[in-house]
Design brief:
Elements lengths: L9 H8 L5 E4 L7 H9 L6 E9 L4 E7 L6 H8 L4 E3 L2 H8 L17 E4 L8 E7 L2 E5 L1 H8 L2 E3 L4
Parallel strand pairs: 2-6, 3-5, 5-8
Antiparallel strand pairs: 1-7, 2-3, 2-4, 6-7
């Protein structure tokens, strides 16, 4: 359902540019609440809420990992998969600088800096995913294939 109060973020501009179908879902953001809060507020399974994680390798090269809300990323497996020594989450201020979004409101669409995107392949089995629309308290419902079509992610299996 369209909500006229939904923000127009860089992510939304990218989705509109690609004529992607999505639904707006605003909710009461809770600091450090994570996907458990957004899933509860939207009344959906946390497995369908996708985290956008900004990480970096040992050379400080940033990357995006898209993971189910109810799972953690095995940084060791991801590093092995992409052929680097280590992968670690960026500090919040560094993540904000790379993405152009505040942590807690990071969308993989419309990031300030172009970064490689790694998508947990099991996400593609879901009919609809809920991913950040570029602002805290704002998720968009979208078909996983739209993420593939727009972002061209590398599919990985890196559930910890």
């Amino acid at each position: 359902m369209k909500d006229s109060k939904a923000p127009v973020t860089a992510a939304i501009r990218v989705l509109r540019e690609h004529k992607a179908a999505f639904t707006d879902h605003l909710y009461a953001y809770e600091e450090h609440g994570g996907t458990a809060v957004s899933a509860r507020e939207l009344g959906v399974e946390e497995h369908a809420v996708i985290k956008t994680l900004i990480m970096e390798d040992e050379h400080k090269h940033p990357l995006i990992v898209l993971m189910h809300g109810d799972h953690e990323v095995s940084t060791k497996n991801l590093a092995r998969h992409i052929g680097v020594k280590t992968i670690a989450p960026c500090a919040p201020d560094v993540a904000n600088r790379h993405s152009g979004y505040m942590v807690g409101g990071t969308s993989p669409f419309g990031t300030k800096k172009a970064m490689p995107v790694y998508l947990q392949q099991s996400i593609l089995a879901l009919p609809t995913i809920y991913i950040n629309g570029g602002k805290r308290g704002y998720l968009i419902g979208i078909a996983p294939q739209v993420v593939v079509d727009i972002l061209r992610p590398v599919l990985v299996d890196v559930i910890a």
